[in-house]
Design goal:
Low-confidence stretches: 1-30
Shape: elongated
Strand content: 15-25%
Distance between the termini: 89 Å
Largest sheet: 6 strands, mixed
Oligomer: single chain
């Protein structure tokens, strides 16, 4: 009998190590050990409101992962929900569980919905994405902004919740511009988010009360963002070609910038002016469908130029320039149909992308325009061709065959400033070996996109 009682007491003690699961020894913030010094104010605030309770060993255990039932309990306490143990809407939540009352109250308040199969999975570890959903609904957040993360795009199911949380100053993501929505959340992290939600004094600032001086576009394969204005400072993140940044301060040749939630210093040499107008470029992948274009050295022109065009479109959209594609799949629009698609969709310039074929010795890049005289449209075409070609031969590390006046139909019979660029020769082994690689396809796309940015900056 004594052994049975002893085993029961040991079991109860072990169970009490879970947050709030059973009545625990009262531990004050002043006596609790293991609270990160950086976040003492936030966690002490939560302890004082009985939202966070310490473990019987007197430690905070900030690195422990938080389960979904623990998260519901903490949020329930923060909101003052009814925590009376009772049956919930979820079959996998034991009605005698310490969290059942808070879970059911959160359901009734429209804060928790559970999984599509009708379960709550109370013992599963909560992810940062789930946390964003829970807290944004618990606090009924409404304001959003253009803040973004590299690993949470607009199609992500947690995009709205993450944006709400960041806009409210409750989260600022992780170094490098990431949110890590699938990563499990720790007691420290969860405590910070709850504290910031309850007390605006703990919120993180996204703008540092500075005015935006200008908008710029990154003009480098990648650009390190540093903690201070110099290469001696630690790198906190990285930006890629075409990304748009807001400049807040100038310190010599360095600029303090924000991009999404990433903030820090970059060298001004790698920044271009961001076109300010509402520009729309038409990108025309040559050939397609029944017309394969040139074929040589294991490459088919229609496939190659479609891949490069789609990549160029992504670069363009990052700069804030709208894109009209004459084709996004393997089909054949007529030559006049390509121009019609561009004009119908209010494009203001036209770039047709091709790959060359001739003798095996022929190599390099070249770009064509058409001008019978020198009208404004024709002059703009010359400038567009020059900007693209000057970047293209350098990025592709190929010979520069120059900018030429040729009457190809899509550039001659076109009301828009229009060019046709050839990104290399399929019939040349060296050119073809480059065009087979993703590295050089990205380089071609980047050159075309940034040449277009140069053009729009010239137009402005």
């Amino acid at each position: 009998m004594i052994m049975k009682v002893l085993r029961m007491l040991i079991s109860l003690f072990l169970l009490s190590l879970v947050i709030g699961q059973l009545p625990v020894i009262k531990v004050s913030a002043s006596s609790m050990e293991g609270i990160p010094a950086k976040y003492t104010s936030e966690i002490t605030y939560l302890v004082g409101k009985s939202v966070v309770k310490g473990y019987p060993d007197g430690h905070f255990h900030g690195t422990d992962e938080v389960t979904r039932e623990q998260a519901a309990t903490m949020v329930g306490r923060a909101l003052g929900l009814n925590g009376q143990v009772r049956k919930s809407a979820f079959p996998d939540v034991n009605e005698r569980s310490y969290a059942s009352g808070y879970i059911q109250s959160a359901v009734e308040a429209g804060i928790i919905k559970g999984y599509p199969d009708g379960t709550y999975k109370p013992k599963s570890m909560m992810t940062r994405g789930e946390m964003a959903y829970l807290i944004s609904h618990a606090l009924d957040l409404e304001d959003t902004s253009d803040i973004s993360y590299k690993d949470v795009n607009q199609k992500s199911p947690v995009y709205q919740s993450v944006n709400l949380l960041t806009t409210a100053g409750i989260s600022e993501g992780t170094p490098g511009g990431y949110f890590l929505p699938g990563k499990t959340i720790t007691r420290t992290e969860f405590s910070l988010f709850v504290a910031r939600g309850l007390n605006s004094a703990f919120k993180v600032s996204q703008e540092e009360d500075l005015e935006v001086l200008s908008k710029k576009v990154v003009d480098a394969d990648f650009l390190n963002v540093r903690q201070g204005p110099g290469t001696q400072y630690e790198t906190v993140g990285r930006l890629m070609t075409g990304e748009t940044v807001s400049v807040y301060k100038k310190e010599g040749d360095w600029r303090f910038i924000h991009s999404g939630n990433l903030k820090g210093y970059v060298h001004s040499y790698y920044l271009l002016d961001k076109p300010q107008g509402n520009w729309t470029i038409a990108l025309d992948p040559g050939h397609g469908g029944r017309d394969p274009g040139a074929s040589a050295n294991g490459l088919v022109e229609k496939e190659l130029v479609l891949d490069v065009s789609l990549k160029a479109s992504e670069y363009m959209e990052n700069t804030g320039v709208d894109v009209v594609m004459t084709r996004q799949t393997d089909w054949y629009p007529s030559l006049d149909g390509r121009v019609a698609l561009a004009t119908k969709n209010d494009a203001d310039a036209f770039v047709s992308i091709h790959a060359n074929a001739f003798a095996s010795s022929a190599t390099g890049v070249e770009t064509f325009y058409y001008a019978a005289g020198l009208s404004n449209r024709e002059y703009a075409s010359v400038k567009l061709a020059t900007f693209i070609n000057n970047r293209l031969y350098k990025e592709m590390d190929m010979s520069n065959r120059g900018v030429k006046n040729v009457g190809y139909r899509v550039v001659k019979h076109n009301p828009l400033p229009a060019v046709l660029t050839e990104i290399g020769f399929l019939t040349n082994e060296t050119d073809a070996s480059k065009l087979k690689t993703d590295h050089y396809r990205e380089a071609a796309a980047r050159a075309i996109a940034m040449g277009v940015v140069d053009y729009y900056n010239w137009k402005e």
